[in-house]
Amino acid sequence: MEIVDYDIVGRGVAKKDGKVYFVKNALLGEDVDIKIESEGKNFCNAVATKINIPSAQRQKPECKYYGVCGGCQLQHFSVKEQLLFKKQLVQNTLKKVGSLQCKVEDVVASNKQYFYRNKCAFASQTQNKRTLFGMYKPKTKDFVEIKKCLLASEGINNVLSLSAKFFATHCEPNLKELVIRQVGDSFLIILAQKGKLTSLDEFQKYLSQHGIRYGLFSNHNLSDDEILSSNNIYVAGEKWLLLNEFSTEQKLFAGSFLQVNSYVKNLLYQQVLQLTNSNEQIVDAYCGIGQMTYLLSQKAEKVIGIESVSSAISSANELKEKTNSKNLEFVLGDVKQKLSSALKGLKNPVVVLDPPRKGCERQVLEILGKSRVKKIIYVSCSPISLSRDLAYLSGYGFKITLAQPFDMFPNTANVETVVQITR
Ligand SMILES: C[S@@+](CC[C@H](N)C(=O)[O-])C[C@H]1O[C@@H](n2cnc3c(N)ncnc32)[C@H](O)[C@@H]1O
Question: Mind listing the pLDDT tens digit for each residue in 85-96?
Answer without folding.
Answer: 999 999 999 999
